[in-house]
């Protein structure tokens, strides 16, 4: 199974492709779609749409996993991230790729085994699970790989799927 993990944003969209086979992970490719701050917002969305479609077309993932949005203090930023997230979901849906959404708590638990893990712990465990020489940069890329790992873990068994759906993991 090939999973495309995505950490949504509009300045930086982290993405990571992970193959999960025989209960082990293999990173295929990862990176970030970036847009410049002075680029008009609608143009930023178009860049995200075009670049993500290119990634999907090149690697043909079996599933897309995306981090669920959580409340942010800046309402304007949250709305803009939500709009970028909509573009991301459209990319997957337009190619009939199933989308799975995970909360930050689910990602932390799947990657570290501890729902209150700090960001550096999640990043280091992501590096270890994927046997990478260093934590990928920018942080959004490492987050996207962690989100892909989360789906691989969740898809591993019916019990895990049920627990994720119920929010117990």
Explain this structure to me?
The protein is an alpha/beta fold and 169 residues long. The protein has a single domain, classed as Ribonuclease H-like superfamily/Ribonuclease H (Nucleotidyltransferase, domain 5). It is built from six helices and five strands; from the N terminus they run βββαβαβαααα. It has helices spanning 41-59, 75-94, 104-112, 119-129, 139-154, 158-166; strands at 2-7, 12-21, 24-34, 63-67, 99-102. The chain has a five-stranded mixed sheet.
Helix content: 40-55%
Main sheet strand line-up = 3-2-1-4-5
Strand residue percentage: 15-25%
Distance between the termini: 21 Å
Q: How many E-type strands?
A: 5
Over all CA atoms, what is the radius of gyration?
A: 15 Å
CATH T-level fold name: Nucleotidyltransferase, domain 5
Gross morphology is globular
Reading off the top of the CATH hierarchy, the class is best stated as: Alpha Beta
Give me the secondary-structure category.
alpha/beta
Q: Indicate the CATH architecture.
A: 2-Layer Sandwich
The H/E string reads EEEHEHEHHHH
CATH superfamily membership: Ribonuclease H-like superfamily/Ribonuclease H
**Average of per-residue pLDDT values:** 91
Poorly predicted ranges? none
How many alpha or pi helices? Answer: 6
The number of domains is 1
Described by strand count, sense and barrel closure, the largest sheet is: 5 strands, mixed
Break the fold down into its secondary structure elements and pairings:
Elements (H helix, E strand, L loop, with lengths): L1 E6 L4 E10 L2 E11 L6 H19 L3 E5 L7 H20 L4 E4 L1 H9 L6 H11 L9 H16 L3 H9 L3
Parallel strand pairs: 1-4, 4-5
Antiparallel strand pairs: 1-2, 2-3
Helix pairs in contact: 1-2, 3-4, 3-5, 4-5
